[in-house]
Amino acid sequence: MQVLNHSLTLSFYTHREYETVRGAVRIYLHWLRALTDIPDGNIPRPLLDTPEKYFRNIIDALRNLFCRRGEAKGEVPRGLAIERQAREVETVLDAIRALTHSASRKYQNEVWARTLSFLLNSADLLLADPLSPEEMGMRVGSRVVDTLFDLWFHAVLNEEIPSPTYWRTLAALCRRWRHHVTVVESWARKLLALTVLVCRKMYGDEYCRISIRELLEYFHIAIIS
């Protein structure tokens, strides 16, 4: 795992290093299936025996993907290097989101706690400081924030927020990110979707006819009027 962890810190400016990073990401995401009810038999036995232990190490290592890479001489321009990194970040976000649904019931608490912590830290790596037009945060920041807020609301619904400390951390970090328009827009969309849903539950489906994509994600929420 030390080799894979180091691979996730490599540059995206050369084809060889990019393929190394890409391979490490896919190996780790494959190993995360050990947390599901039907794990792949090709996963190493230690991971199958104690998947929650290795999950902590894997998800901590994957945070390196979100770190900004400095300027470097390589085989590709900076724009392509950023695009490569962004694609790997999006792959990880999709896999983590899927894991919150597919993880075995006995690992759900661990998965949700580590996932929310991972997303808070990863978003902060990208959004804490002002960005230039070619920064990674400009390319993938909105996707990271959307994933964080989506899973946050689902964690609230499923009573998977581990402690009030998580709420305080989210509030503190959002204040640090408030100079990013994408953060304000994403949070506003989630709140608008929930507000529309509450109004429809109270006054009927014809009330507040606003078409919002997020409504589909929260439509199953039980709301007592």
TrEMBL record:
Organism the protein comes from: Ancylostoma caninum (Dog hookworm)
One MF term in the entry's GO annotations: GTPase activator activity
Highest taxon of the lineage: Eukaryota
PANTHER family: RAL GTPASE-ACTIVATING PROTEIN SUBUNIT BETA
Residues annotated as domain Ral GTPase-activating protein subunit alpha/beta N-terminal: 82-204
Record's protein name: Ral GTPase-activating protein subunit alpha/beta N-terminal domain-containing protein
